[in-house]
Amino acid sequence: MEIDLLDPGPFGRNDFWPTFTWLRAHSPVHWHPEPGSDDGGFWVLSRHHDIREVYADSDTFSSARGMRLGSDPAAVAAVAQRMLIVSDVPHHTRLKRALHQAFGPQQMPRVEAMVEKVVGELVTEALEHDELDFIDLAKQLPNRVVCAMMGIPRADWAWIGALTTDAFDSPDDEVRTNAHSEIFLYFIELLAERRARPGDDLVSQIAHDTLVDEGDGVERPLSDHEIVFNLNGVLSGANETTRYSAAGAVHMFAEHPDQWRLLRSLGQGGIAPAVEEILRWTTPGVHALRTAVRDTEINGIPVAEGARVTLWNVSANRDEDVFADPHAFRVDRRPNRHVAFGHGRHLCLGARLARFELGALLTEMLGALDGFELAGPVTFNSSNFTWGINALPVRLLRSRAFAK
After folding, report:
1. H or E segment and range at residue 44
2. CA-CA distance, 192 to 189, in Å (whole number)?
3. Beta strands 131-133 and 393-398: pairing type?
4. Is 17 exposed, middle or buried (0-12, 13-18, 19+ CB in 10 A)?
5. What is the pLDDT of residues 248-307, one digit of tens each?
6. Which residues does 14 contact at the CB level (< 8 Å), separation at least 6?
7. Dist. CA 210–CA 195, nearest whole Å
8. Helix (H, G, I), strand (E, B) or coil at 249
9. Cα 74 from Cα 76, distance rounded (Å)
10. Spatial distance between the Cα atoms of 20 and 314, rounded to a whole number of angstroms
11. CB atoms closer than 10 angstroms to residue 395
12. 188, 185, 181: which is closest to 166 by C-alpha?
């Protein structure tokens, strides 16, 4: 079988799944050539067990040399050990512990109230239409929440959301670069303002109240670069996962109305497992990259120091050895040991927030809608890194209480 995971075409057509089924069965640790690269290619891991093992072994597999295929080495070097997703211990441990203060349990009641307010507003707005492109709602949910958390002025929310999409989804290198630059400049200015006039928002908290433990009882504030780099990471992570997972869920409920009926019959107790199945099914973070820092083996295959190793989360989450009937969408699936948020030390910082956003959206829609019908063709973005639906025209089937 011809394997080309660098070709964006299969991702745009949503027909890449057979490739990973073949890899899991025939070549679970697979060498993938990449003409023109310094090392000639990279390793592809497709099985759940191997992927979790590499995620967990951060002493052997580094994140600081890049976290995705196609990364600009100069850009990676500029943020390495200062941005959470491209850092290794001890820097990663210190940064995550510091940033977790802003996302910990003590902050969640305020954040949850904010999410419920945003979800209520969005569903009310959606119900004003018979048909809509659901991705428009899905984009706004995480963007409104994270912008509110950061204290970004409401007038800038739509602009920030569009920039985030350009920075991570645009097929044009120049558009992506310019969007990242705009976001960094915006956060530099926002941080300077919060330094001078702190409020009760996330940026103020990180700027004034968050300390990094350097060991031996020595603590220091985060540097401006650390704050700006990680705010960018929070913005992108918050937007991409929830957007694609929410749209992917509605797509499945439109194609499989029995699952919507099942979820309604399960009531509030069915929300949590449904959220986990949505995350497994959609897996917006397609792959992650690690670099071997010493000679090692993966499942008996020698891997040389300096080799790039790619962890294909989308494949792990359809692994037949872990998930019964993995190509079926089942809202009551238990257990559900997916790796949509990664695993180990690099488990996504915003996982709790993303889960709550999806749960709140399901809860609100269950009370208002009998289901969904597709109203046009569904399309996907052509990315092997952050992937999902980019057009989802649907008709909303209102519950009687919400009918016009």
Report:
1. strand 41-45
2. 5
3. antiparallel
4. middle
5. 999 999 999 999 999 999 999 999 999 999 999 999 999 999 999 999 999 999 999 999
6. 380
7. 13
8. helix
9. 5
10. 8
11. 16
12. 181
Three state DSSP letters for 181-223: HHHHHHHHHHHHHHHHCCCCCHHHHHHHCCEEEEECCEEEECC
Alpha carbon distance 62, 220 (integer Å): 25
Count Cα neighbours of 332 within 13 Å in the Cβ-side half-sphere: 12
Amino acid at 171: P
- Residue 64, exposed/middle/buried by CB under 10 A (0-12, 13-18, 19+)? buried
Q: How many whole angstroms separate alpha carbon 280 and alpha carbon 285?
A: 11
**108-132 core/surface letters (b: 16 or more CB in 10 A; e: else):** eeebbeebeebbeebbeebbeeeeb
Which residue, among 382, 348, 334, 403, has the nearest Cα to 172 in the 3D structure? 382
Residue showing tokens 């707005």: 125
Is residue 343 left, alpha or beta, with left meaning phi > 0 and alpha meaning psi from -120 to 50?
A: beta
| Cis preceding-peptide flag for 18 (omega within 30 of 0) | no
Shortest CA distance to 300 belongs to which of 25, 62, 28? 28
3-state SS, residue 321 = coil
Q: Which residues contact 65 (CB under 8 A, 6 or more apart)?
A: 76, 80, 86, 291
Judge whether 306 and 325 are in contact, CB under 8 Å: no
The size of the chain, in residues, is 404
- The tens digit of pLDDT for each residue in 62-113 reads 999 888 998 878 777 777 777 778 788 877 777 777 777 666 677 778 889 9
* Beta strands 308-312 and 41-45, pairing class: parallel
> Does the model's pTM come out above 0.85?
yes
